[in-house]
Amino acid sequence: MDLTLKVWRQKNREDKGALATYKVKGISEHASFLEMLDVMNEQLINEGVEPVAFDHDCREGICGTCSLYINGEAHGPDRKVTTCQLHMRMFKDGETIYIEPWRSAAMPVIKDLIVDRSAFDRIQQSGGFVSVNTSGNTQDANALPIPKMNADKAFDVAACIGCGACVATCKNSSAMLFVAAKVSQYAYLPQGQVERTERVLNMVEQMDKEGFGNCTNTGACEVECPKSISIEYIAKMNREYLSASITSEK
Amino acid sequence: MSVLDSKIPEGPLKDKWTNHKNNIDLVNPANKRNIDIIVVGTGLAGGSAAASLAEMGYNVKTFCYQDSPRRAHSIAAQGGINAAKNYQNDGDSVYRLFYDTVKGGDYRAREANVHRLAEVSGNIIDQCVAQGVPFGRDYGGLLDNRSFGGVLVSRTFYAKGQTGQQLLLGAYSAMNRQIAKGKITPYNRHEMVELVKVDGKARGIIARNLETGELERHSAHAVVIASGGYGNVFFLSTNAMGSNATAAWKIHKKGAHFANPCYTQIHPTCIPRSGEHQSKLTLMSESLRNDGRIWVPRNMEDVLAIREGKLKPTDLSEDKRDYYLERRYPAFGNLVPRDVASRAAKERCDAGYGVNQTGEAVYLDFASAIQRYGKQEAAIARMENPSAEEILKLGEAVIESKYGNLFQMYEKIVAENPYKTPMMIYPAVHYTMGGVWVDYNLMTSVEGCYCIGEANFSDHGANRLGASALMQGLADGYFVLPYTIGNYLSNEIRTGKISTETSEFVEAEKEVSDRIEKLMNIQGTKSVDHFHKLLGKAMWEYVGMARNEEGLKKAMAEIKQIRTDFWNDVRIPGDKNSLNPELEKAGRVADFLELGELFAKDALHRNESCGGHFREESVEEDGLQKGEAKRNDKDFAYVAAWEYKGEPSDAVMHREDLEFNDIELKQRSYK
């Protein structure tokens, strides 16, 4: 298929940036979206133009590195996929495709389509862990049975890959789905109980400090989330937060 | 005597690690605060090591090329992690895990290391559960297990098909706890580009800030390399796009011996290539072989009809299918080890029975498992005379709960529904058992420089068993290195802060900036990928699943030529003082172009078939095992550790003879 690509180009953090237009020809419908960009970049290199920088690594939908806003949707038109799992069969021959970076004040563009997601790391550092030493001298793994339903729910939220699609797609640039996923994971597990109260308070505080917005229940995040994490966990986090702010002794 | 001193402790095998730990020198907590450690790579090995070392009190700096430690490629491991817990009461034990690992590695691993790995395996599960890793559980709330290829017990713990992700996020959370305390300083989007040695000891690294292009000097009392394997030397592999051997190769060039580079694992169940645009290959977890049956059509006319789209695989009756693994290996069937399954697929496809357009695909079929589970569920639900449809529905639900994400992944890539039609799979490069040579303490032949996880060579011999990579990464990082590094660091308490202004640092930085300058100035006509693809083709053609003398010699010559062309004709756009992905790739491919040649040289010298290394000259001539790989213990029961001498072809080999006191060497048979 032949395509017209409108791609966001931005030299560095300070640069204003603009859309550039490139044409690619003969793309296989079996190619992934990023493989299509590889072809485009190879072409640009041959033409002496600096190729477009974009984030990507595992290319199998699990590392959470790839982050493209395609035709106005985070990770493009397909559902339950990351950009690297998006395939060209989702597009039509002759189509014009708009490719932009995530847009959020808390995730500034570094170059072209690459954004700075270090805010996510800092939120995790503020409480996204169980304070257990790595000595291996913990109790036997089976000493504490966990109801399968709780373990499964913990897994469902732990599946978050930290890509940032929820933020990119939210009109408020809210990171609440991302934070709720971690808060809920530990809230469902016995290991997370000891720090349950402080964790949610600290993580929400850090989230606000980073400049992410609030949730207004539009539900866009759960639609675009490649791991289908449900918005119900935001409700859970809100309950956790409310009860923590009442019971916390801090 | 060999220059290689493996430092394996004396005493009976089962007591070696315990005795060794009792005799290791310790560092006083007050002194730990004055000691710096650099960890390069933040996957399971690097992440767990960084967290553990920081927790012990050392000052840790971590480096990763990704934008966050959470994205290291350990995250993509699907199937599970082994541990000798014997929760299933099926006869598992530390000894059995040790035995299976040594046997699975075709008797080319170091006995003492493997036993230690099996000993600490149980602790890993305890540790991860305590961190809140949501492993799969049964209805009683206890941990569930799977079985994996090459073994007869169920010892694999899993979190759906995302075990690597959950374990890595566990290690990442442990890191975060230490980052919050200021004990780890993370340097993300940073790549180690050189090792700095002072008086023969590893004293730091030169790192390139990938966002600004700036070269930075970092000093430490010890340097730990945990940068993963070198599968991307094949261009197409299941590794991440950025996975590279640069850190490992740089220390090799500074004196660390590189062991058994030819031991590569070609994983049998990956999604086949779809065309020239292919940038990487996607693995389908080996756990699928628990329930999937592998086959190709028995008759050539059916193969052709399927390729032309005139026939669907589901139309073929049982008698027209060749379940070749069940036919050839009745004892293990579809659960033979990876190398055996891969070669069997290649054998069928080479004979012309491949089922897709490229002729490089076999079927992995879940129809009988869906039936089996469906009937079982119907019985549990006490349904009387369930209809075929009901059984199908129930069966598919069981398969979905076990492999849902894998099936979804397959469907997204191939656009076929694997619940309804068999998956197509083909082998792909997945893991490298070879790597930097280390002693029992995981120290390389450069003093003060350690190497852990996939980057080292020590535990998997010539072939790795499924679900053992996660085990080794976490064992090294959580439970082995934190002990053994003390032995070295106890002599460093008087060293004090190490300056980065010394001539060694200045020279190392200059070396790097000259190299970058040289790359940028070539301004040739071909992209980095062009050369990487050529290298990959030569590797896959001559150094892939089956190797012979003629091909390997050809590969060495070809790779040398590609390397020369690369240094004359590569084109790297952009500039060096900004984020430049092409420049990053160029540096990595330049190293692969050297490593590939050493790889072929090692494969050429090892004139036996063992594990993932199959030499066509070395097969069984007759009997039940006719045509199977033939190992040669008399001449090759050793580790080949190569010393860098300028050109890969000039590398000098040192032998570490492998002694097996607790295991009898047997020909592997899965018949």
Brief rundown of the structure:
The complex is a heterodimer of chains A (250) and B (671). Chain A has 250 residues and is α+β, with helices and mostly antiparallel strands. Chain A has helices spanning 33-46, 118-125, 148-158, 165-169, 176-188, 196-209, 220-224, 232-247; strands at residues 3-9, 18-24, 69-70, 73-74, 96-100, 109-111, 114-115.
Side-by-side strand order of the widest sheet of chain A: 2-1-5-3-4
Uncertain runs of chain A: none
Care to count the β-strands of chain A? Answer: 7
Sheet with most strands of chain B: 5 strands, parallel
What's the mean pLDDT score of chain A? 97
- Percent of residues in helices of chain B comes to 25-40%
Structural class, from secondary structure content of chain B?
alpha+beta
Beta-strand percent range of chain B: 5-15%
Number of domains of chain A: 2
Main sheet: strand order of chain B: 5-2-1-9-17
Q: Enter the CATH topology name of the largest domain in chain A.
A: Fumarate Reductase Iron-sulfur Protein, Chain B, domain 2
- Estimated helix fraction of chain A: 25-40%
Provide key terms for this protein:
heterodimer; A: alpha+beta; Fumarate Reductase Iron-sulfur Protein, Chain B, domain 2; five-stranded mixed sheet; B: 671 residues; alpha+beta; five-stranded parallel sheet; 18 helices; 19 strands; globular
